[in-house]
Design a protein that fits this description.
The chain has about 250 residues and is mainly α. The protein is built from 13 helices and no strands. Helix 10 runs antiparallel to helix 11. The chain starts with 6 loop residues before the first helix and ends with a helix.
């Protein structure tokens, strides 16, 4: 007479012998996927100015400091562009490359100045100055050039042009631009590059008399091209002022 094992005993034997069906462990996330996630978190922290999160992520994975996002931005460039002072200071402490450039050849210093005209922040000039100071203290100089806008003074001139463009050249330019120009000059920047003044050129483009007078008082050199620009754009008063100061 045959004897049959109870069902529970039979299941136990199968488990012991390795014949029972076992759940497979979930595969670990791929290295590429983990890096992509960490990179996204790192740049998000740079954008929001979360210095503490930047520190934690970089300590766990220092290679994040070398990562680039869309447009070739490093986290330092993104933080500088967004006016995130504490994030910039933290990234500099962590050893971010101050020579890193975006796809247009701009450094963090250029982007800190270029971003002034587009930031919706009542303290935009104060934060820009703090970031510029931090970058200069970290070894950057206002003479580093970009094929996009020249030196730091050229970047500031581009921001001025955008600001005046947004106001149709009619509104009063915020005093913060003059303060930034003075700060750059005190840090060794030059008002003139290659025989012309980018800041004077920006003011001539809009016939902005207060700006022209400011640039001239700081030693801006008048050249024929800038006078021609003022005339071409329909600013006879600006052209006359420039001609009077032509050397």
């Amino acid at each position: 007479m045959r004897r049959y094992l109870p069902a529970l005993a039979l299941a136990a034997l199968f488990a012991i012998s390795g014949c029972a069906r076992q759940e497979k462990p979930a595969p670990p996330p791929s290295v590429g996927k983990m890096m992509k996630q960490q990179s996204a978190e790192f740049f998000a922290a740079a954008d929001s100015g979360d210095a503490r999160k930047l520190r934690g992520l970089a300590k766990a994975n220092p290679s994040l400091l070398e990562m680039r996002s869309t447009g070739g931005d490093s986290a330092l460039i993104r933080a500088a562009d967004g006016g995130r002072v504490e994030a910039v200071q933290e990234l500099l402490k962590l050893g971010s490359d101050t020579d890193a450039r975006d796809d247009r050849g701009n450094t963090a210093l250029h982007r800190a100045l270029l971003g002034v005209s587009t930031r919706d922040d009542p303290k935009r000039f104060e934060t820009a100055k703090a970031i510029v100071r931090a970058l200069l203290n970290a070894g950057m100089t206002p003479h580093q050039r970009s094929p996009h806008c020249g030196t730091a003074m050229g970047a500031l001139a581009s921001a001025v042009n955008l600001e005046l463009h947004g106001a149709g050249g009619q509104a009063e330019l915020p005093a913060g631009y003059y303060d930034l120009a003075d700060y750059l000059l005190s840090a060794g920047a030059k008002m003139n590059e290659d025989g012309e003044s980018p800041l004077l050129h920006a003011f001539a483009d809009w016939g902005y008399m207060p700006g022209l007078k400011f640039a001239l008082s700081k030693g801006a050199v008048v050249d024929a091209k800038t006078i021609a620009l003022a005339r071409q754009m329909g600013h006879p008063e600006a052209a006359a002022l420039l001609e009077k100061n032509l050397r």
